[in-house]
Amino acid sequence: MNTRREWLENVSAGFGWLAFSALAGQQKGVVSAALAEEAAPLARAQRVIFLCMEGGPSHLDTFDYKPELTARDGEPSPAGRRGALIKASPFAFQQHGESGQWISSLFPHVARHADSLCMLKGMHTDRPNHAQACLQMHCGIFQFPRPSMGSWVVHGLGNANENLPGYVTINPSAANGGTANYSSSFLPATCQGTRLQVRGGGQSMMANLENRRRTPQEQEQQMDLLRRLSAADPHHDPVVEDLLASWEMAFRMQSEFPEVLDFRGERRETLEMYGIDENAEPAAGGFAGPMATASLDTFGRQCLLARRLIESGVRFVEVNASGWDHHRTLEESLTASCESVDRPIAALLEDLGQRGLLEDTLVMWGGEFGRSPWAQGDGRDHNSRGFTMWLAGAGVKPGFTYGRTDDLGYEAVEGKMHIHDWHATILHLLGLDHTRLTFPYAGREMRLTDVYGDVATEILA
């Protein structure tokens, strides 16, 4: 017996080794707890809800008012796009709240919360392609597999509830990055996003928890076997330890998750506020594909579930709505997309505020890029040079606008905020230094912002 590990494995029938193994299995949680304790004094936010509009919502028709588009409607594009003509927005804009935020007629319910929103109008990213831009928005980089933003948050802050995952993604798209958008990559498996599927029409969400292959007793036996194999492994394979931790989490979730997923205790007024109709007919095939627009009922359920999840201790919740790639029929298709999310988003902001949760919950809205000022048929093309996202809640200035695009809304010209800066600012609001939140991999210390990123201190309350 040359090492203390070997001594623990062999003395007293290995009982000392079992105790040591249990402590080692908790070590990742201890590290996260230490990071969370260090972050706590600086944190403005304790949790995040990201409302992800996958496909690239048009900033020019929603939150970035450009009267120059109307004045120059039909003129040739100045950006050298052959045959492209400037396209005015078909939607009316109006100022709202004491802050005077410009919001289009597409978001009448969100407009009531104008004085809570912090508009980021100088956003820009590196690629005008969906897959690359989605990956960069979620993971900071699109060239290689990397942990997602939610995974980094859980790595830095740990779980607030050991019976629930730290990171949940609701109705994620199978396209444009797919599972990579919520993967933990080289971080521990317990940091990965847990995927939940929500459908409208009052369909039960319990299918998310069902294990049709094994009974609870069989699952416990399986985990016990894995524990013994892990303890007997002289190399202590971290992959096996991660797998065991992931299985144990899944097993514990079955005891607490059913209550979180059960809306029967919610007041009728709350369900109506979110646009949830218990009698709504579900769409054929459920949530129908990456370019489908979620119904009002479905997205309302997603938003209400997000509130219930963060209320139960989940750190990071992503609420996904696909179908924002409006190359054609802009007026009809964008109207449908906005109608499906406007009321639930406003209800979420109101609900969080009434419960005192908005004070330490950061709500984020946006997509991977924006749209062009010129027409593509009767729609708009991709635009990564300038677009709008917004934040609300913990630590950001309410009723505030940061950044500006040029007069046509094509390129960010003031208060420019790259996706790396966005990530750095989000982590800062959570009390985490993006330059210190790292993980050793491939010979260097990796981080969400790679070697970039500046905190936008101008937007901090």
Task: Give structural notes.
The structure is a single chain. By secondary structure, this protein is of the alpha/beta class. The chain has a single domain, classed as Alkaline Phosphatase, subunit A. Helices cover 34% and strands 17% of the residues. The chain has helices at 4-10, 15-25, 27-39, 67-71, 108-111, 130-139, 149-157, 216-232, 238-261, 268-273, 296-311, 330-354, 419-429; strands at residues 47-53, 93-96, 101-104, 117-124, 167-170, 194-196, 316-321, 361-366, 370-376, 379-383, 387-393, 400-402, 404-405, 412-414, 417-418, 439-441, 444-446. Strands 1, 4, 5, 6, 7, 8, 11, 12 and 15 form a 9-stranded mixed β-sheet that branches. The protein has a two-stranded antiparallel ribbon with strand order 2-3. It has a two-stranded antiparallel sheet with strand order 9-10. Strand 16 (439-441) and strand 17 form a beta hairpin. The chain is globular. The termini are far apart. The model is unreliable at 17-30 and 283-294 (pLDDT under 50).
